[in-house]
Specification:
Elements (H helix, E strand, L loop, with lengths): L1 H14 L6 H4 L3 H4 L4 E3 L2 H10 L1 E7 L12 E5 L5 E14 H6 L7 H7 L5 E12 L2
Parallel strand pairs: 1-3
Antiparallel strand pairs: 2-5, 3-4, 4-5
Length: 134
């Protein structure tokens, strides 16, 4: 499956025009290294492709370093096939209490809520689809 993801990455950087100046300046960091991959259930991937955006919630304790705005990642279907190249557009940290009190329905918050201890901080990442695998 790695070869399929790498082939998608090579097409996606051209489609998303990430490295337009490569001929003049050489490859930049974003186009030189394949970004991390992660998957969602097929229904969520379909919604992300339709809306051209998606949101992910996770426990702050799961992150050694917070994700950065502008970072790239590859979204995979459940079977591991590449679906889209994403760019992080927003990263925020909110408390579990704030999300619960506001009645938030952010990304997969409902799933994260069950494993989040009281007082936990939650990382909310927002992504833009910049190239899909069509």
């Amino acid at each position: 499956m790695t070869d399929i993801v790498e082939a998608f990455w090579n097409r996606a950087i051209l489609k998303a025009r990430i490295n337009q100046l490569e001929v003049v300046t050489g490859p930049d960091r974003d186009s030189a290294l394949m970004p991390p991959t992660w998957s969602m259930d097929d229904e969520s991937v379909t919604a992300a492709l339709k809306n051209r955006t998606t949101v992910l919630a996770s426990l702050a304790s799961e992150h050694e370093v917070l994700p950065e705005v502008g970072g790239l990642s590859i979204l995979l279907w459940q079977d591991g096939a590449p679906a889209a190249l994403l760019r992080t557009t927003d990263v925020s940290v909110r408390s579990k209490a704030d999300l619960d009190d506001a009645g938030e329905v952010v990304g997969d918050w409902a799933q994260v809520r069950d494993s989040a201890p009281e007082g936990a901080d939650i990382v909310i990442e927002r992504f833009l689809v910049i190239a899909d695998n069509d």
